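Page 47, continued from p. 46.
Same chain as before, 233 aa.
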Amino acid sequence: MWYYILAGAIMIWSFIVQISLQGKAKKGATMPANVTANEVVEQMLRDHGISGITICHKSGELTDCYSPREGKIYLSDTTYNQANVTAVAVAAHECGHAIQDHERMLIYRFRQFLAPAAGLCSSASWIIVMAGLVIAGLAEHGGEIGFTICNIGILVYMVTFLFYLVMLPVERNASRRAYKDMKQTNWIREENRAYAYKILRAAGDTYAISLASSALTLFRLLLIRNSVRGRRR
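Result:
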Protein backbone atom coordinates (compact mmCIF):
# COMPACT_ATOMS: atom_id res chain seq x y z
CA MET A 1 0.00 0.00 0.00
CA TRP A 2 2.76 2.43 0.94
CA TYR A 3 4.47 1.75 -2.37
CA TYR A 4 1.43 2.91 -4.35
CA ILE A 5 0.95 5.97 -2.16
CA LEU A 6 4.58 6.99 -2.67
CA ALA A 7 4.42 6.22 -6.40
CA GLY A 8 1.36 8.43 -6.77
CA ALA A 9 2.99 11.25 -4.81
CA ILE A 10 6.12 11.12 -6.96
CA MET A 11 4.03 11.07 -10.14
CA ILE A 12 2.13 14.20 -9.06
CA TRP A 13 5.37 15.89 -7.99
CA SER A 14 6.96 15.07 -11.34
CA PHE A 15 3.99 16.51 -13.23
CA ILE A 16 4.11 19.75 -11.23
CA VAL A 17 7.87 20.14 -11.69
CA GLN A 18 7.72 19.48 -15.44
CA ILE A 19 4.91 22.00 -15.94
CA SER A 20 6.76 24.55 -13.82
CA LEU A 21 10.03 24.03 -15.70
CA GLN A 22 8.39 24.29 -19.10
CA GLY A 23 6.60 27.48 -18.08
CA LYS A 24 9.74 29.09 -16.68
CA ALA A 25 11.86 28.07 -19.67
CA LYS A 26 9.27 29.42 -22.09
CA LYS A 27 9.01 32.75 -20.27
CA GLY A 28 12.80 33.00 -19.93
CA ALA A 29 13.12 32.53 -23.69
CA THR A 30 11.21 35.79 -24.16
CA MET A 31 13.64 37.73 -21.94
CA PRO A 32 16.54 39.10 -24.00
CA ALA A 33 20.15 38.61 -22.90
CA ASN A 34 23.15 40.79 -23.67
CA VAL A 35 25.16 37.87 -25.08
CA THR A 36 24.51 34.58 -26.83
CA ALA A 37 24.74 31.19 -25.13
CA ASN A 38 27.88 30.43 -27.15
CA GLU A 39 29.56 33.60 -25.91
CA VAL A 40 28.68 32.63 -22.34
CA VAL A 41 30.43 29.28 -22.72
CA GLU A 42 33.46 30.85 -24.34
CA GLN A 43 33.84 33.40 -21.55
CA MET A 44 33.34 30.88 -18.76
CA LEU A 45 35.92 28.54 -20.24
CA ARG A 46 38.36 31.40 -20.69
CA ASP A 47 37.80 32.83 -17.20
CA HIS A 48 38.37 29.43 -15.61
CA GLY A 49 41.49 28.71 -17.65
CA ILE A 50 39.98 25.83 -19.60
CA SER A 51 41.07 25.08 -23.15
CA GLY A 52 40.52 22.30 -25.66
CA ILE A 53 36.72 22.25 -25.38
CA THR A 54 34.59 23.02 -28.41
CA ILE A 55 30.98 24.18 -28.67
CA CYS A 56 28.78 22.10 -30.96
CA HIS A 57 25.21 22.32 -32.12
CA LYS A 58 22.96 19.33 -31.38
CA SER A 59 19.53 19.09 -32.98
CA GLY A 60 16.45 18.83 -30.81
CA GLU A 61 15.31 20.24 -27.48
CA LEU A 62 16.82 19.44 -24.07
CA THR A 63 19.82 17.85 -25.79
CA ASP A 64 22.26 20.23 -24.10
CA CYS A 65 25.10 18.35 -22.44
CA TYR A 66 28.82 18.31 -21.72
CA SER A 67 30.77 15.33 -23.05
CA PRO A 68 34.06 14.99 -21.15
CA ARG A 69 35.20 12.13 -23.36
CA GLU A 70 34.79 14.19 -26.54
CA GLY A 71 35.78 17.50 -24.99
CA LYS A 72 32.62 19.13 -26.33
CA ILE A 73 29.71 21.14 -24.99
CA TYR A 74 26.58 20.42 -27.01
CA LEU A 75 23.90 23.10 -27.22
CA SER A 76 20.41 22.35 -28.52
CA ASP A 77 18.31 24.21 -31.08
CA THR A 78 16.80 26.41 -28.37
CA THR A 79 20.20 27.26 -26.87
CA TYR A 80 22.83 27.40 -29.61
CA ASN A 81 23.62 31.03 -30.50
CA GLN A 82 20.43 32.17 -28.75
CA ALA A 83 20.47 35.38 -26.69
CA ASN A 84 17.83 34.97 -24.01
CA VAL A 85 17.74 34.21 -20.28
CA THR A 86 16.86 30.53 -20.66
CA ALA A 87 19.59 29.88 -23.22
CA VAL A 88 22.20 31.67 -21.11
CA ALA A 89 21.19 29.73 -17.98
CA VAL A 90 21.31 26.37 -19.77
CA ALA A 91 24.65 27.08 -21.44
CA ALA A 92 26.20 28.30 -18.19
CA HIS A 93 24.98 25.18 -16.40
CA GLU A 94 26.56 22.86 -18.97
CA CYS A 95 29.77 24.83 -18.77
CA GLY A 96 29.57 24.32 -15.00
CA HIS A 97 30.08 20.61 -15.67
CA ALA A 98 33.15 21.37 -17.75
CA ILE A 99 34.55 23.32 -14.81
CA GLN A 100 33.80 20.42 -12.45
CA ASP A 101 35.70 18.14 -14.79
CA HIS A 102 38.60 20.57 -15.11
CA GLU A 103 38.86 20.89 -11.33
CA ARG A 104 38.67 17.10 -10.98
CA MET A 105 35.75 17.40 -8.58
CA LEU A 106 35.59 14.10 -6.70
CA ILE A 107 31.82 13.59 -6.69
CA TYR A 108 31.62 14.52 -10.39
CA ARG A 109 34.30 11.95 -11.24
CA PHE A 110 32.45 9.35 -9.15
CA ARG A 111 29.26 10.03 -11.10
CA GLN A 112 31.10 9.64 -14.39
CA PHE A 113 32.54 6.37 -13.10
CA LEU A 114 29.07 5.03 -12.30
CA ALA A 115 27.31 6.36 -15.42
CA PRO A 116 28.19 3.57 -17.91
CA ALA A 117 26.90 0.85 -15.57
CA ALA A 118 23.83 2.63 -14.17
CA GLY A 119 21.41 1.78 -16.98
CA LEU A 120 22.62 -1.80 -17.32
CA CYS A 121 22.41 -2.44 -13.59
CA SER A 122 18.89 -1.01 -13.47
CA SER A 123 17.64 -3.55 -16.02
CA ALA A 124 19.74 -6.46 -14.74
CA SER A 125 18.61 -6.00 -11.15
CA TRP A 126 14.96 -6.60 -12.06
CA ILE A 127 15.84 -9.74 -14.01
CA ILE A 128 17.87 -11.09 -11.09
CA VAL A 129 15.24 -10.29 -8.45
CA MET A 130 12.40 -11.77 -10.51
CA ALA A 131 14.51 -14.88 -11.11
CA GLY A 132 14.94 -15.18 -7.36
CA LEU A 133 11.18 -14.84 -6.89
CA VAL A 134 10.47 -17.55 -9.46
CA ILE A 135 13.03 -19.94 -7.98
CA ALA A 136 11.61 -19.39 -4.51
CA GLY A 137 8.13 -20.27 -5.77
CA LEU A 138 8.92 -23.20 -8.01
CA ALA A 139 12.03 -24.98 -6.79
CA GLU A 140 11.87 -27.39 -3.88
CA HIS A 141 13.48 -25.74 -0.88
CA GLY A 142 14.09 -22.79 -3.19
CA GLY A 143 13.26 -20.11 -0.65
CA GLU A 144 16.81 -19.79 0.64
CA ILE A 145 18.28 -19.71 -2.86
CA GLY A 146 15.65 -17.26 -4.09
CA PHE A 147 16.24 -14.98 -1.12
CA THR A 148 19.97 -14.93 -1.84
CA ILE A 149 19.42 -14.22 -5.53
CA CYS A 150 17.09 -11.34 -4.66
CA ASN A 151 19.77 -9.87 -2.42
CA ILE A 152 22.24 -10.05 -5.29
CA GLY A 153 19.76 -8.22 -7.52
CA ILE A 154 19.33 -5.49 -4.92
CA LEU A 155 23.09 -5.08 -4.61
CA VAL A 156 23.29 -4.72 -8.39
CA TYR A 157 20.59 -2.02 -8.31
CA MET A 158 22.55 -0.12 -5.66
CA VAL A 159 24.92 0.97 -8.46
CA THR A 160 22.00 2.72 -10.16
CA PHE A 161 20.75 4.21 -6.90
CA LEU A 162 24.22 5.56 -6.07
CA PHE A 163 24.38 7.13 -9.52
CA TYR A 164 21.19 9.11 -8.91
CA LEU A 165 22.25 9.86 -5.36
CA VAL A 166 25.42 11.63 -6.48
CA MET A 167 23.88 13.12 -9.62
CA LEU A 168 21.65 15.54 -7.69
CA PRO A 169 24.46 17.38 -5.83
CA VAL A 170 26.56 17.41 -9.01
CA GLU A 171 23.75 19.09 -10.94
CA ARG A 172 23.01 21.55 -8.13
CA ASN A 173 26.69 22.44 -7.96
CA ALA A 174 26.85 23.09 -11.72
CA SER A 175 23.87 25.43 -11.39
CA ARG A 176 25.47 27.30 -8.48
CA ARG A 177 28.63 27.78 -10.54
CA ALA A 178 26.54 29.06 -13.45
CA TYR A 179 24.66 31.53 -11.28
CA LYS A 180 27.84 32.73 -9.58
CA ASP A 181 29.34 33.65 -12.95
CA MET A 182 26.07 35.29 -14.01
CA LYS A 183 26.19 37.62 -11.02
CA GLN A 184 29.74 38.69 -11.89
CA THR A 185 28.95 39.55 -15.52
CA ASN A 186 26.48 41.54 -17.56
CA TRP A 187 25.21 38.58 -19.58
CA ILE A 188 21.66 39.32 -18.51
CA ARG A 189 19.99 42.28 -16.90
CA GLU A 190 20.20 42.43 -13.13
CA GLU A 191 16.43 42.34 -12.74
CA ASN A 192 16.31 39.06 -14.71
CA ARG A 193 19.02 37.22 -12.78
CA ALA A 194 16.62 35.98 -10.13
CA TYR A 195 14.47 34.46 -12.86
CA ALA A 196 17.50 32.73 -14.36
CA TYR A 197 18.13 31.20 -10.94
CA LYS A 198 14.52 29.96 -10.84
CA ILE A 199 15.07 28.20 -14.15
CA LEU A 200 18.22 26.55 -12.83
CA ARG A 201 16.45 25.45 -9.63
CA ALA A 202 13.48 24.06 -11.57
CA ALA A 203 15.80 22.09 -13.83
CA GLY A 204 17.60 20.72 -10.77
CA ASP A 205 14.29 19.58 -9.30
CA THR A 206 13.95 17.07 -12.14
CA TYR A 207 17.05 15.31 -10.81
CA ALA A 208 15.50 15.27 -7.33
CA ILE A 209 12.56 13.42 -8.85
CA SER A 210 14.91 10.95 -10.52
CA LEU A 211 16.51 10.25 -7.14
CA ALA A 212 13.10 9.82 -5.49
CA SER A 213 12.00 7.46 -8.27
CA SER A 214 15.19 5.45 -7.87
CA ALA A 215 14.62 5.20 -4.11
CA LEU A 216 11.07 4.02 -4.80
CA THR A 217 12.37 1.32 -7.13
CA LEU A 218 14.79 0.20 -4.44
CA PHE A 219 11.88 0.05 -1.99
CA ARG A 220 9.91 -2.07 -4.45
CA LEU A 221 12.78 -4.51 -4.87
CA LEU A 222 13.09 -4.81 -1.11
CA LEU A 223 9.37 -5.59 -0.85
CA ILE A 224 9.77 -8.37 -3.41
CA ARG A 225 12.79 -9.71 -1.54
CA ASN A 226 10.87 -9.66 1.72
CA SER A 227 8.02 -11.64 0.12
CA VAL A 228 10.54 -14.39 -0.47
CA ARG A 229 11.74 -14.32 3.14
CA GLY A 230 8.73 -16.32 4.36
CA ARG A 231 9.54 -19.13 1.93
CA ARG A 232 12.98 -19.74 3.36
CA ARG A 233 13.44 -23.13 5.00
